[in-house]
Fold this protein.
Amino acid sequence: MDDKLDCKACGTIQMDIPDNATESTPIYCSNCGAFLGEWGELQDDFYRQARDAEAFDLRDGNIIKK
């Protein structure tokens, strides 16, 4: 992973993801509240990185180590 999913304000990867998130739902850091991006963009970035690393999966908003 190349740290693109980390919060630029506090450095953590802790996302506050609503249960009914859509592609355009704004996602915020659950640690400091900073805006991280839209859910669709964050998922796309994660899947791109996970595909390259082949070590992680995203399931129901949780990062799962394969």
The chain has a mean pLDDT of 80.
